[in-house]
Amino acid sequence: MDIQRPSNARAKKIRRIAYGLVALILIAGVTVGLSRLRPAAPTVDAATIWPDTVKRGPMLREVRGLGTLVPEDIRWIPAQTDSRVDRWVLRPGAVVRPDSIIMELSDPTLQRETLDAEFQLKGAEADYANLRVQVDSDLMNQKALEAGVRSDYEQSKIQHDVDEKLYKEGLAADVTEKLSRVRVQQLAIRVQLEGERTKITADSAKARLAAQQAKIDEQKALYQLKKSQLDALHVRAGINGVLQLVPVEVGQHVTPGTNLARVADPKKLKAEIKIAETQAKDVAIGQKATVDTRNGVVEGHVSRIDPSVVNGTVTVDVAIDNPLPQGARADLSVDGTITLENLKDVMYVGRPVHGQADSTIGLFKIINDGSEAVRVNVKLGRSSVTTMEVLSGLQVGDKVILSDMSQVDNFDRIRLK
What we know:
This protein is of the alpha+beta class. It has 3 helices and 21 strands.
């Protein structure tokens, strides 16, 4: 006979519920734990990074820029009149002297005006010569008249002396003595008047001659101007140097002021360096500089700073102090480095890729004998071409990564292999 067993379905149900709760708690705990775990540190090849060590000591502050060599003495030769280019005598690259003719122009109108000015000058000179003869003749006539009156005056004085003596001796009438005295007085007045007239005639002659001379000077200046313009049709270099550019063609019509040629002295060159506007604030005239021509490095100094900013750069002129190497010529591309100051005792490191002066950036500091690197905030100070001052965040001897680490921006720790 079968014996009925007690039912355990309820106990099984309770056990299943308990197991489910335990599993649920375990899953939740694992999930929370995993969510709080940091992502695994990425691995970076140590051969691809650029490390440097923080140092303390003197730091040379410099700024660098690209530029070109340009002549210090450049002469643009403009056209002086409306003319036409007849022919080129010299081509760009030719060595020239001040009297070297570069090209020849033509202007028939100017030739005619020059000839007219020459004839007008000759006419004014002839009028001056004729006037001089006329005024000299007038002056001589006046002097002769004055001399005649003076002669009469002297004779009348002698006659009056005789009449006066005879009158006193009772040998002549009173009226005779009085008449001779009146004649002397009248002739004395005429002598004075004729003397003043002679002086006026001489002054008038000078004034008339001066007026005519002014006309001659005017015509001479006009003739010299036309002659110089005519001579300028033979375009000359004006200085010793090299013909660099001839921007006009044969047969071309040119107006006054049109640039016909450019001549420069290749022996006197300077460097025009483009410095970033953010770095140019500390550049001053007189600072030492070096210019790399890629065929040698020469010393120089800052001679001029452009007051304006163009395309984010400031143009700085560097005067060359040493002889330039062979091959240096105008428009040659160069590198310029300007020394700003020499800091005596500062903590510094190589310039990070994205490092800017007076800023705070994140750098990876190498730890654990070079196997790992952690991100630290570093406050930077003054900057140079290849180094930057470290104000805080690092110590002397720390090794940091200076290369671009933007690919691991989301990580604070990396592994190096």
